[in-house]
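User: I'm preparing a small set of examples for a lab meeting where we compare how different chains pack in three dimensions. I only have the primary sequence for this one, and I'd like the structure in token form so I can line it up with the others. Please keep the answer compact; I'll paste it straight into my notes.
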Amino acid sequence: MKKGKWFCKFGLCTMFLAFSFVAATASCTTKTLKVSKAKKASKMVYTNAVCDQAVGDSIQTILMSGKVTVMLTSTDSLKAQPQQLILSREDTQVLRFLVSDPQMFTEDIPNYGVIIPQVRVLFEKSKSEKIELGIDFGLRKWILVDGAGKVQKQYALRKHDLLRFTHYLYPNDELITNLYNCSKK
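Assistant: Understood. Below is the structure token output for the 185-residue chain.
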């Protein structure tokens, strides 16, 4: 009889200890595992005083937000359609950084030729808010064209960053590759 009572007490004691251990473990983990909500990521706001003064607030807003499409128009054939490329998020950020560079907005020097862009970049915030950036690597100029096709601004290319970025996007284009190789010398 004594053996049975001892076994029963030992079993109850073991059960009580096991239950206490589980309860203590559960209460400690519930206190430390608070669900923390992720903070909303703030939208990236571009502020560039030089860009704002050079092109205006409304054009800068279109340039720094919305969808970006790059069109390569440097083919020799007149019937060939431009090669369109919708940029990824990372490439869009790089392009916006390059376009907002203060050295991009240096005064235009007189040119002695007609600007024929090899690359056109369409910034589209909505159907009515569009601006096109045309880059002529031969004359080393870039222009801003509104939705109606009227040239709004014209600047000189001071650096080869946009050419390098275009070569990154279109590595198989012969003209862009030749211009890029000449610029490295």
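A couple of notes for your slides: Strands lie at 67-72, 83-86, 119-124, 130-136, 141-146, 151-156. The CA atoms of residues 36 and 59 lie 40 Å apart.

User: Perfect, thanks.
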